[in-house]
């Protein structure tokens, strides 16, 4: 099934323009609708979560509601400016025009994770910022997108978007369930890619599917994929993966997220954790 619905979640003090730019570049190949969704918790939820000292200092429901309205208006103005500068037609979400690239702006007030899940499950691809774990919005957006929507999620690094994010796609393959899901969900992008390569670390589990089997599977779908070697089996996978991506000038990585425990990776390190912290190119993840 082709990708026709690209979701870009945003919120107060969040700049979605790098992700909107990437969504537009993807839509150059996919002819998709770009949905910018402003997500924000209601004032009563925010008020219930803030310390009493802030309430004593004058934080009220009315003030929070005003700040939310101002943030929505600022986001809307920035979105209108982006559409004009990018020459993208702005159209209400309910006015469907299949086969065209257009964009819409919607507001969803409620718990950020629940609102993102609601929007994300009826999207083909979700584009989020690289998570900053000290930022509640970014952390909630990552968790909801990757773990609760069932949809592929592209983690976008800071900086300008690639001129062609599908120029060369690198699949990080380990034969895991998460990696398998990532490949399956990314098939529309792999078909549209200019080139595809497979990075496979040395196998520790003989029951896992080999890179050659993945290449044969992709070939049956009309996708030619180059299998890359792992230069030094003594090194950690994460740094070698990023070095390989840089060496072949990959424009997008496709990989499973958190094959092992998230808690283990947070404290001890792991491939997903390393890629999230260091990747300079977009990464499509699925869990």
> CATH H-level name of the largest domain... which superfamily?
HUPs
Mean pLDDT: 89
Shape descriptor: globular
User: How many domains in all?
Assistant: 2
CATH class of the largest domain: Alpha Beta
| Poorly predicted runs of 5 or more residues | 263-269
The CATH topology of the largest domain: Rossmann fold
| C-alpha end-to-end distance | 19 Å
Class from secondary-structure proportions = alpha/beta
User: Helical element count?
Assistant: 11
Percent strand:
15-25%
Largest sheet: 11 strands, mixed
Strand order in space, largest sheet:
3-4-2-1-5-6-11-10-7-8-9
* Counted beta strands: 11
Give the proportion of residues in helices: 40-55%
> What is the alpha-carbon Rg in Å?
20 Å
Helix-strand string: EHEHHHEEHEHEEHEHEHEHHE
| CATH architecture group name of the largest domain | 3-Layer(aba) Sandwich
Write the layout of secondary structure elements.
Layout (H helix, E strand, L loop, with lengths): L4 E6 L6 H14 L2 E8 L2 H7 L2 H5 L4 H26 L2 E2 L11 E8 L2 H9 L4 E5 L6 H13 L4 E4 L12 E5 L3 H16 L3 E5 L10 H10 L4 E4 L8 H11 L4 E5 L5 H7 L2 H8 L4 E4 L1
Parallel strand pairs: 1-2, 1-5, 2-4, 3-4, 5-6, 7-8, 7-10, 8-9, 10-11
Antiparallel strand pairs: 6-11
Helix pairs in contact: 2-4, 5-6, 9-11
């Amino acid at each position: 099934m082709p990708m026709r619905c690209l979701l870009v979640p945003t919120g107060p003090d969040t700049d979605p323009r790098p992700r909107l730019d990437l969504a537009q570049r993807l839509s150059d190949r996919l002819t998709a609708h770009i949905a910018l969704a402003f997500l924000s918790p209601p004032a009563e939820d925010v008020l219930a979560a803030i310390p009493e000292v802030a309430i004593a200092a004058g934080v009220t429901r009315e003030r929070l509601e005003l700040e939310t309205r101002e943030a929505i208006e600022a986001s809307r103005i920035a979105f209108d400016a982006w559409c004009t500068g990018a020459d993208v037609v702005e159209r209400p979400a309910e006015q469907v025009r299949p086969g065209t690239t257009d964009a819409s702006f919607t507001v969803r007030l409620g718990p950020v994770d629940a609102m993102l899940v609601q929007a994300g499950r009826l999207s083909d691809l979700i584009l989020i910022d690289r998570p900053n774990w000290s930022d509640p919005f970014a952390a909630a957006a990552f968790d909801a997108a990757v773990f609760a929507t069932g949809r592929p999620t592209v983690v976008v690094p800071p900086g300008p978007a690639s001129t062609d994010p599908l120029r060369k796609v690198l699949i990080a393959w380990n034969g895991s369930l998460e990696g398998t899901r990532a490949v399956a969900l990314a098939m529309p992008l792999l078909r549209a890619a200019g080139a595809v390569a497979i990075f496979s670390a040395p196998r520790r589990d003989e029951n896992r599917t080999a890179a050659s089997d993945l290449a044969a599977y992709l070939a049956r779908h009309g996708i030619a994929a180059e299998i890359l070697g792992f230069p030094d089996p003594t090194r950690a996978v994460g740094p070698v993966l990023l070095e390989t991506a840089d060496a072949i000038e990959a424009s997008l990585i496709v990989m499973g997220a958190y094959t092992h425990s998230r808690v283990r990776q947070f404290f001890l390190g792991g491939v997903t954790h390393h890629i999230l912290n260091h990747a300079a190119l977009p990464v499509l993840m699925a869990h």
